[in-house]
């Protein structure tokens, strides 16, 4: 089981790399947009729509990964009151509920993506079809759901496998407050 | 109205059961909306929010400002900031603790997170203060308190979240944070002064640094200071040098900051490929968690509004004919009480959807008529206080993680004068809103 989880970790590198590239591109593009606009008055006109697309990529490509790693912001105030076995079942139940609740919105996102496809709307400057983004969001919402449910099941069936393949290092530093 | 209160209770229970806050708010919001409207309506609302938030241009400010902080940090800024502050303040009694406060403020000007500021500065400042024989209570407390400035002095992740949640101008919020942040620094310096006046042995003076060395230390941080003034100056619209006019939107300011920090780190050869990957990955992950939390908060907020909670609160205020400032005091008391147990972001997300419409609504409709920017700053200051309030002041626990041999009791004891300084600052900002509004009003 733990080798399977390790393989999942390797597969997760792909969407992570996609997000990292999108974020780097967003930084470089924003910089040149401002510099070009301020100095020779020629902004990158497609910057806004590209930023929107890159944002969707940064966020949704990483959502399944952080869900699988349990990196979501949670309050651990009551942790001392749960025995380890109870805590494990609690975490399993929570992962399963979180995954399950995504089912209906995910289904609806697919409907919205299909609708966008039938309208055939494109972005203003680069004429990128809007439904590409909607489909990307839909697919990754389903993957997030799958990641949460698999995590919940592993916590019930073989919790030690998750500990063996624990996330690398502590939670991100620069987050929330 | 009763539905909203039940919903609020349900979120609290789920959150305490360790359900991620985003999912707790999303689940309760969705079920509640379903109850008041329809299954289809609720699911559509959530799906629409997922698709629209994914492509939210305003949200791109989050990863870019996080990137800026992470890149600058890789360049070793925290050590240099401390050296500068030490060079100018180290010879005073309690000077190292004062230097810590100033270095924290400088770091906050690049980093938008209080926990990261406390964690980073503790690694630099703590060994120094130990070397000079500072009392553990004073040294840990000055870092824990100084770190809270991270979310007030721009850029600030919490202010961005508040701005997105309430559709308040992020640029104005950032600019509004400057004066209250500086007041915070002054009051904290006062708290150090008070501590060493009462107990001179707690913070002995260090040696005086000669002027040439002081200037050398300033040169070390010059590039980053320049970057800060470029970013904030551009945001304020003050950098108009014909023919070049630098006026940024928040996203553009963040992009300039991130790229600038990246270039500075490159120039100093303090950035490997591996570091770059790590920094980008961390920023992307953090963005995704914040984004999830925002969707959850919006779903919950839609439900609360549908349930008529804001109107309910307004009617209550009108019915009892209470003065706006009495209500405000009551709200602040609730915040300080919640701050004792809740982590800052969770507190903001849970309370803003409930209080914002009441506090900022027009007086004619039973609102209190306060300015959204002012309320944002006040909320952040209260949140800062919660970071050093027992029993779960998070910054105190960050310190505890770095210096395990100091008890939390000792840190909290040292924090007391800083906490009192914060309460004074809060009172000042509530009584003199001009201090918050003077800069953003000129934008």
Topology:
The complex is a heterodimer of chains A (177) and B (443).
Chain A: H1 2-11, H2 13-40, H3 47-69, H4 84-101, H5 103-119, H6 130-157, H7 159-164
Chain B: H1 2-16, H2 21-36, H3 39-54, H4 61-74, H5 77-89, H6 95-108, H7 114-131, H8 136-148, H9 157-166, H10 170-176, H11 178-198, H12 211-236, E1 239-241, E2 244-246, H13 250-267, H14 273-306, H15 309-320, H16 324-341, H17 344-360, H18 372-387, H19 394-402, H20 408-431, H21 434-441
Antiparallel strand pairs in B: 1-2
Helix pairs in contact in B: 1-2, 2-3, 2-14, 3-14, 4-13, 4-14, 5-6, 5-12, 6-7, 6-8, 6-11, 7-8, 7-19, 8-11, 8-19, 8-20, 9-17, 9-18, 10-21, 11-20, 12-13, 14-17, 15-17, 16-17, 16-18, 17-18, 18-20
What does this structure look like?
The complex is a heterodimer of chains A (177) and B (443). Chain A has 177 residues and is an all-alpha fold. Chain A has helices at residues 2-11, 13-40, 47-69, 84-101, 103-119, 130-157, 159-164. In chain A, helix 2 runs antiparallel to helix 3. The radius of gyration of chain A is 20 Å and the shape is elongated. Residues 167-177 of chain A have low confidence and may be disordered. Helices cover 77% and strands 1% of the residues of chain B. Chain B has helices spanning 2-16, 21-36, 39-54, 61-74, 77-89, 95-108, 114-131, 136-148, 157-166, 170-176, 178-198, 211-236, 250-267, 273-306, 309-320, 324-341, 344-360, 372-387, 394-402, 408-431, 434-441; strands at 239-241, 244-246. A two-stranded antiparallel ribbon of chain B has the order 1-2. In chain B, helix 5 (77-89) packs across helix 6, helix 7 (114-131) packs across helix 19 and helix 10 (170-176) crosses helix 21. Chain B is globular. Classes of the chains: A mainly alpha (177), B mainly alpha (443). Chains A and B meet through helix 2, helix 3, helix 4, helix 5 and helix 6 of A and helix 2, helix 3, helix 4, helix 7 and strand 2 of B.
């Amino acid at each position: 089981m733990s080798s399977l989880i390790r393989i999942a970790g390797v597969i997760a590198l792909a969407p992570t790399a996609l997000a990292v590239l999108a974020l780097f591109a967003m930084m470089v593009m924003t910089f040149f947009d401002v510099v070009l606009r301020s100095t020779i008055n020629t902004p990158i006109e497609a910057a806004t729509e590209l930023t929107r697309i890159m944002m969707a990529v940064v966020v949704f490509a990483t959502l399944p990964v952080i869900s699988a790693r349990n990196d979501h912001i949670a309050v651990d105030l009551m942790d001392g009151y749960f025995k380890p076995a109870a805590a494990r079942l609690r975490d399993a139940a929570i992962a399963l509920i979180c995954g399950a609740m995504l089912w209906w919105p995910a289904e609806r996102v697919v409907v919205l993506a299909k609708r966008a496809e039938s309208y055939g709307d494109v972005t203003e400057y680069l004429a990128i079809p809007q439904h590409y983004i909607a489909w990307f969001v839909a697919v990754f919402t389903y993957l997030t759901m799958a990641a949460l449910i698999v995590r919940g099941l592993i916590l019930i069936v073989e919790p030690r496998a998750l500990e063996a393949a624990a996330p690398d290092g502590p939670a991100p530093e620069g987050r929330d407050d | 109205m009763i539905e909203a209160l039940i919903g609020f209770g349900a979120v609290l229970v789920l959150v305490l059961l360790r359900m991620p806050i985003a999912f707790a708010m999303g689940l309760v919001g969705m079920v509640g909306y379903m109850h008041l409207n329809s299954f289809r309506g609720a699911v559509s609302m959530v799906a629409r929010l997922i698709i629209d938030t994914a492509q939210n241009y305003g949200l791109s400010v989050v990863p870019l400002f996080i990137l800026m902080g992470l890149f600058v940090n890789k360049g070793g800024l925290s050590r240099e900031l401390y050296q500068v502050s030490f060079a100018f303040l180290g010879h005073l009694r309690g000077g190292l603790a004062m230097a810590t406060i100033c270095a924290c403020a400088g770091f906050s000007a690049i980093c938008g997170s209080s926990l990261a500021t406390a964690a980073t500065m503790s690694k630099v400042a703590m060994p120094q203060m130990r070397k000079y024989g500072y009392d553990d209570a004073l040294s840990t407390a000055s870092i824990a308190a100084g770190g809270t400035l991270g979310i007030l002095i721009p850029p600030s992740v919490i202010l961005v979240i508040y701005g997105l949640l309430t559709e308040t101008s992020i640029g104005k919020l950032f600019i509004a944070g400057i004066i209250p942040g500086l007041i915070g620094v002054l009051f904290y310096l006062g708290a150090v002064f008070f501590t060493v006046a009462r107990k001179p042995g707690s913070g002995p003076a260090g040696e005086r640094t000669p002027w040439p060395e002081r200037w050398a230390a300033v040169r070390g941080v010059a590039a980053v200071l320049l970057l800060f003034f470029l970013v904030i100056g551009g945001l304020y619209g003050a950098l108009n040098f014909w023919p070049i006019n630098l006026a940024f939107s928040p996203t553009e300011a963040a992009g300039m900051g991130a790229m600038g920090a990246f270039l500075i780190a490159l120039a100093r050869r303090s950035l490997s490929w591996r570091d770059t990957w790590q920094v980008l990955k961390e920023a992307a992950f953090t963005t995704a968690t914040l984004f999830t939390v925002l969707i959850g908060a919006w779903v919950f907020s839609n439900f609360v509004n549908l349930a008529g909670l804001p109107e309910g609160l307004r009617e209550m205020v009108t019915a009892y004919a209470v003065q706006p400032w009495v209500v405000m005091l009551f709200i602040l008391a609730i915040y300080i009480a919640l701050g004792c147990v809740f982590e800052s972001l969770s507190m903001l997300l849970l309370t803003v959807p409930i209080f914002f419409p009441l506090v900022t609504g027009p007086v004619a409709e039973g609102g209190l008529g306060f300015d959204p920017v002012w309320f944002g700053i006040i909320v952040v200051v209260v949140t800062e206080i919660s970071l050093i309030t027992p029993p779960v002041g998070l910054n105190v626990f960050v310190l505890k993680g770095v210096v395990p041999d100091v008890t939390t009791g000792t840190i909290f004891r040292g924090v007391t004068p800083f906490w009192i300084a914060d309460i004074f600052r809060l009172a000042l900002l509530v009584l003199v809103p001009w201090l918050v509004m003077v800069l953003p009003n000129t934008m």
